[in-house]
Amino acid sequence: MSEIKILLAEDDGNLGSLLKEYLTVKGYNTQLEVDGEKAFKAFKNDRFDLCIFDIMMPKKDGLTLAKDIRIDNNSIPIIFLTAKSMKDDVIEGLKAGADDYLTKPFSMEELLLRIEAVLRRSNIIKSEKPTIFNLGKIVFDSNKQSIETDGTEVKLTTKESELLRMLCENKGEVLERNYALKAIWNDDNYFNARSMDVYITKLRKHLKNEKSIQILNIHGRGFKLLTE
C-alpha cells in the first residue's frame, strides 16, 4: 500500500505538533499548516489522501476551508476537530462535507480509529483484519453480519455485528467500554452505554447454545469474550 498523506490544519501549535508527531509515528505522511489559508495553498500544490481540520482557525476557518476544497475535490475524506460540543458545529461541519468529527479533548487512539474507519469507507485502504471468526461450532461472518451454527444462519444487526467483531478481535482481553462506545456509537454517554448493554444481552442469547463461549462483564472496565 502506498503511503497515506494527510493534510492537518490546526492553529494550536502544541496540539498540531503533537498530532503530527503521533500520526507520523503511526506511518502517515502528515503535513501541518497553522491556518486555513496556508492549508488551502498546500492542498492546491500537492496530493493528499485525507484532511483533518480544526474548525476554529484564523484567516480561513475549517468550515470555509472544507467548502473551498469540496469545489475542487468532492471525494477526499475530511475529519473536523472542534473545541465545542455544540450541535450547530456538527451540523455545519456535515453540511460543509465532513466525513467525521471529533470534539476536543480526544484521545490519540480515538483519532487513529476514526482515520482508519474513514479511509476504509473511502476505499483508500482495504481492511486487512479478519472477517470470519470461529467460536466453537459457531461461525461469525462480520461482512455478512451473520452467525451460522450447523447450517442455520442468523442475521445480526449492524450494531450487534460491530460489537461482536470487536469482542472477537480482542478475544481473551478486556474490550474497554468507552473505546467500544466511541468506535461504534461515536459517543460514550449514558444512553449509548445502556444501549450497548442491551446489545451485549442480545449477543449472549445468540451464542447461548455454544457452551464454550462466554461474554463476561469486567466491572468498571468493559467486557471479555472467552472461548475454551
Description:
The protein is built from eight helices and twelve strands. The radius of gyration is 20 Å and the shape is elongated. Strands 2-1-3-4-5 form a five-stranded parallel β-sheet, sandwiched between helices. It has a four-stranded antiparallel β-sheet with strand order 6-7-8-9, with helices on one face. The protein has a three-stranded antiparallel β-sheet with strand order 10-12-11. By secondary structure, the protein is of the alpha/beta class. It has two domains: 5-121, 3-Layer(aba) Sandwich (Rossmann fold); 132-227, Winged helix-like DNA-binding domain superfamily/Winged helix DNA-binding domain (Arc Repressor Mutant, subunit A, Orthogonal Bundle). The mean pLDDT is 87. Helix content is 42%, strand content 24%. Helix 2 runs parallel beside helix 3 and helix 6 (158-169) packs across helix 8 (190-207).
Which characteristics define this entry?
8 helices, elongated, Arc Repressor Mutant, subunit A, alpha/beta, 228 residues, Rossmann fold, four-stranded antiparallel sheet, single chain, 12 strands, five-stranded parallel sheet
List the helices and strands and how they pair.
Elements: E1 5-9, H1 13-25, E2 29-33, H2 36-45, E3 50-54, H3 62-72, E4 78-82, H4 87-95, E5 100-103, H5 108-121, E6 132-135, E7 138-141, E8 146-149, E9 152-155, H6 158-169, E10 174-176, H7 177-184, H8 190-207, E11 213-218, E12 222-227
CATH superfamily of the largest domain: Response regulator
Strand order of the largest sheet: 2-1-3-4-5
Please count the beta strands (DSSP E, at least 2 residues each): 12
Helical fraction: 40-55%
Q: Provide the succession of SSEs.
A: EHEHEHEHEHEEEEHEHHEE
